[in-house]
Amino acid sequence: MDHESFATRAAFIHLVRSGHSVEEAAKEVGRSRAWGYKWWRRFQEGQDWEALQDRSRRPHHPRRLPEEVYRAIRQARSELEAEAHQGKGLGYIGSHAIQARLRQQGLSPLPSISTIERELRRAGMTRPKRKGQTPSIHYPHLRPTRPHQLIQADILPRYLTGGLAVACFNAIDVVSRYPSGRQYERRTAQNAVDFLLAVWQEQGLPEYQQVDNESCFSGGYRHPGVLGKVIRLALFLGVQLVFSPYYHPESNGTVERFHQDYARFVWEGTHLPDLEGVRERSARFFYLYRSSHHHSHLQGRSPQEVHQESLPPRTIPPDFRLPDPLPLTAGQVHFIRAVDEHRQVKVLNMQWDVPKAEPHQGVWVTLNLSPQGATLSVFDKAPGVPGRRCLVKHPFPLKEKVIPLAPEFRPRPKQPTAVRRGLTALATLAAVVGSLVLRPPARLRSFEG
Asked: Which end of the chain is more exposed for a tag (fewer CB within 10 A), N or C?
């Protein structure tokens, strides 16, 4: 379908949705009454702008591909599984990774994602869901009420046309919806450290930073009691790191939903030749998203405006230099977990007894480090929830000393109400002045400006 046809149909839909009758809108764009009812019906059925695209006239029955294509799908999956086991590459084995591998090999015809998934199921090469993680588990969760209180971060895997993998690290403030992101070739602990440092330099140090259980964040799955680079970084800067439950992306739902907007703008329908191209298009997306007014729950304000209404409680000094190696610093690290059938939880590659809990109960685990030692406590609810109970407390083994948190990274005492209002007013004024200088787009429709 050419752009002119879509523009005509879109203009017609705009008129109908603004209050014109179907007949009036069709006449306004120079089309017949029957044409108008056809496209209005299609738009109502689809409830999105894809409904205005031309539909394929090809028959809908599936076409069998040559047998060598199906063999290539199975072989690519097997190779990717072996490479993931050996720690090579990014460890992706899904349908997108298989298609990228086949494209790189020059396979023709190239199978679609749905064909690859169908063949994997037929060949019995899909991974069943792990037992013990049922949808009925209710996990504790934080309930942030202001910006700078909770940032969620996650990694979105994508592939360039030539098959090169890209790890898209994204983060978003749960209350203000202010996003940050970086793109790398690999998911390493050092890249995770660089990413979080960039996020906190842009947004200020949050009270809580939530991440998933990827080895680049957690420190790996082999050594018991491991305290990796990311944990040490958060402790050193006074940020409370929160690890999401295993196999439960809903607990990191804000950044998971953000991934969808990011992927649609940056990756869908575009040609990205290299990592630098990804970074350039990503930077444009983040700029547009921050100044967009499309969020219904922000009441007409942009993420940038909401984020600046509340001054960050702490910032990283401009002359900050990260020590190498990173020491263990006094603070807290949290883990959202499910109790297994043996009334245990797995934290930092160790099993911990929770005798007072029920199997498949969601719990909140806190590792508290101080110069006097470390303890691991299991709670039935998240911090700040009324009626919270400690179910059990264990000593945590440490092999090195713990240093005190530096004064510049300690949480600031709460300001009196009048002072907070004054600071908020100054932040709002700064946001208004900034918007007059930058003149960001007033609205963000399909993230194209």
From this structure: N
Whole-angstrom CA distances from 62 to 58, 59, 143, 271 are: 11, 8, 47, 28
Q: Residue with structure tokens 């932040």?
A: 427
Domain assignment present for residue 216? The answer is: yes
CA angle 394, 399, 402 (to 5 degrees): 80
Q: What is the H or E stretch that residue 113 is in?
A: helix 113-122
pLDDT at residue number 90 = 54
Residue 58 neighbours by CB distance under 10 Å: 7
36, 39, 19: which is closest to 27 by C-alpha?
36
Helix (H, G, I), strand (E, B) or coil at 446: coil
Cis preceding-peptide flag for 140 (omega within 30 of 0): no
pLDDT band at 196 (very low <50, low <70, confident <90, very high): very high
Give pLDDT tens digits for 59-87. Answer: 545 567 899 999 999 999 998 888 877 75
Long-range contacts of the stretch 55-60 (C-beta < 8 A, 24+): none
State both tokens at 261.
């907007």
Report H helices in 133-238: 189-203, 215-218, 229-236
Instruction: Say yes or no: 83 and 177 in one domain.
Output: no
- Residue 183 in domain: yes
β-bridge mates for residue 332, sequence order: 368
For residue 243, give its domain range: 150-309
Task: Kindly state whether residues 245 and 340 are assigned to the same domain.
Answer: no
Considering the entire predicted model, what is its pTM? 0.69
The pair of three-digit structure tokens given for residue 152, joined into one six-digit string = 């969620």
- Say how many domains are in the chain: 4
Look at residues 286, 305, 266, 295 and name the one whose alpha carbon lies nearest to residue 171. Answer: 286
Segment 415-430 mean pLDDT:
52
What pLDDT shows up at residue 271? 85
Same domain, yes or no: 33 and 94: no
Q: Whole-angstrom Cα distance, residue 197 to residue 203?
A: 10
From the CB of residue 387, how many other CB atoms can be counted at a distance below 10 Å?
6
